[in-house]
Write a structure and sequence with these properties.
The protein is mainly alpha-helical. Helix content is 84%, strand content 0%.
């Protein structure tokens, strides 16, 4: 029994096509599994970092609370120190007035900074985008926007 050379070539080409299809299928499967594994790794890493950040934020909050008590103790010490020179009620009143003055100045500075930040729209970026659109459209006269 002899085989014809054309039939052998056709079978070999078909066999290579099947092998190529199997390789492409395997590659697709491997890439899909790799992406899933990388996403799982990223989720685990973010979870760990989130826990660490939570602990750090909690410690910062605790430190702020303790610092607030420290400021209170310093204010009490200032009152007691000033009470050596003037009556205690006057020392407390003087320290309170100084604290309110500092708070008022901080509030005014804060208001100034907030007013500079409003409106919360990136105006320069918006203007830049509008200029880019005008350049792309071929400079349109003011007030006339064509679609």
């Amino acid at each position: 029994m002899t085989t014809r050379p054309d039939a052998v070539r056709h079978d070999a080409g078909q066999n290579q096509g099947e092998q190529l299809g199997a390789l492409v299928s395997q590659l697709t499967s491997d890439v899909s599994r790799l992406v899933r594994d990388e996403l799982q790794l990223a989720k685990a890493e973010l979870k760990d970092k989130g826990k660490e950040a939570g602990v750090g934020i909690g410690l910062f909050g605790g430190a702020g609370t303790v610092a607030l008590y420290g400021v209170g103790a310093l204010i009490a010490a200032a009152i007691l120190g000033l009470a050596q020179a003037v009556p205690a009620w006057l020392a407390a009143l003087i320290v309170a007035v100084v604290l309110f003055a500092v708070a008022g100045i901080a509030a005014m500075l804060g208001k100034r900074h907030v007013s500079r930040a409003t409106p919360p729209v990136p105006q320069r970026a918006v203007e830049g985008v509008q200029e880019d659109l005008e350049a792309l459209k071929g400079h349109q006269p003011e007030g006339k926007i064509t679609a």
